[in-house]
Amino acid sequence: MERFYTTTAIDYVNGAPHIGHAYEKILTDVIYRHFSQRCEDTYFLTGTDEHGIKIQKTSAAQGMSPKELCDMNAQKFIDGWKALDINYSQFIRTTDAQHEAIVQKIFDKLLKQGDIYKHSYTGLYCQGCEAFLSEKDLTEDGLCPDHLKKPEEVSEENYFFKLTKYKDAIIKHIKTNPDFIVPSFRANEVINQLENIEDISVSRAKSNVSWGIPVLGDDEQVIYVWIDALSNYITALGYNPDGESEEKFNKYWPANVQVIGKDILKFHSIYWPAFLMALDLPLPKQILAHGWITIDQTKMSKSLGNVISPTGVLESFNQEIPDALRYYMASAAPCGKDGNYSDEDFKEKVNAHLANSMGNLLNRTLSMLVKYFDGDVKAEFKIKSDLFDKAIETVKAVKHHFDYYEVQEAAQKINELVDITNKYVTDNAPWTLAKEEKMTECGQVLTTVLEIMCVVSSLIYPYCPNIAKAMAEQLSYDLNTKLDNVTCDNISVGHLIDKENIKPVFLRMDSELADKSKKS
């Protein structure tokens, strides 16, 4: 794979980011960092969706302009992702001048080639979804199933996109490309939705929604969310519907994987492919639809008061680096399934995996190397071990899981390697070997473990970049090593580390050192 381009859904800026937003960004960042270890050229796009009736109404209620509200809340997302070490390449806002200009050109191109037409329409509009719903989409009580509110009847003359024109082509693409939608069990849902698909409204009357991108040549209409929001994946790269696109677009499109929540799969696997087909552009290689994050097994809801801020979690647990939360969220659910967050499970899991198992293994091994050998590695300590075969097998297994975006499953493989290495230490008891003055054998055990920990630092890096860097620094290991080049021959003969440079890479969350409130 020469290059890797991944995107997230862009978040609506009607409020601050919550842990559901964070889950998607962490998941995507872990995937992106992993493929950065396999590719020379990678790009990661995220951003915010900033037009529509909700922004218009919320800003008016708060006594500010829509743009002021967008500026304020977009910064909250930018700050939140910085706190979580989300290593994106570009952050796009749909109020960016370049995006708005390209969206107008895209709309105009589709209009002129006959894929968009004007039509009077009466339909049921859900403000929460920012979508027109049909009767069959509603609950038995006539409510939107996602927002549990009755949609309002709206009569307008709008522009419509000929979605039905591309129905058969989309069905064919999904059936002939079984890996297009991940996980694959979602594909049947999409095909079922396609059976009764209708043309969709792609504009709103400015008299009803004024906060949007104006349609060129029609002052009474603004471009509706789908062409506006979905196009960000190509406008960010400098796509030009009228001529030569920027080199960045030619280099990175089509995306390798577009990561979205299962609730917006319909728009990304039906609307978005149709727009791309109409523009004669290749479709993304894969759409990854992740599940939702519940809170203590309950769906997150403002009315229930259980909406959790990701930065609030970091603050409440006094976490100066986000690695623990990143690890926990990324491994929260199998690919495409729902996951759950709870304070107790968070603390229990990261203490067990990051502190007790992985961190303690490195710390005590380095401490024994200093205690018995003054931190030196001798030539006779470098041996071949069956454990090395297991480590290289684990690298291959982790790569295989990431090929299918099985991020939780990859984390389990890393933990298995750490557990096997801990058992190796227990079985070989280097402290007993030292007591029996079998110093060469003792040094061989310790050096073997340190070789494995170099591999572990590479594998854990996408989840825990700060912890991985701390591990690599103490091991004098080059963390920039590509996964294809990872070996079990990284520890050099000579002096490795002094006692004062051995530091825990992750403190238990209930330790006095980790808990500042307890310490104070």
Could you characterize the architecture of this molecule?
- The chain has helices at 19-36, 53-61, 66-83, 97-112, 167-176, 186-195, 225-230, 232-235, 247-252, 265-278, 310-316, 323-330, 343-373, 386-403, 407-428, 430-435, 439-460, 465-475, 516-519; strands at 3-8, 11-12, 41-49, 90-93, 116-126, 131-133, 152-161, 181-182, 200-201, 203-205, 213-215, 218-223, 257-261, 287-290, 293-295, 298-299, 339-341, 376-377, 494-495.
- The protein has 19 helices and 19 strands.
- The model is unreliable at 513-520 (pLDDT under 50).
- The chain is elongated, with a radius of gyration of 26 Å.
- Helix content is 46%, strand content 16%.
- A hairpin with a 2-residue loop joins strand 15 and strand 16.
- The strands form 5 sheets. Strands 1, 2, 3, 4, 8, 13 and 14 form a 7-stranded parallel beta sheet that branches. It has a 4-stranded antiparallel beta sheet with strand order 6-5-7-9. The protein has a 3-stranded antiparallel beta sheet with strand order 10-12-11.
- The chain is α/β, with parallel strands linked by helices and 520 residues long.
- Helix 5 packs antiparallel against helix 6, helix 15 runs antiparallel to helix 17 and helix 17 (439-460) packs antiparallel against helix 18.
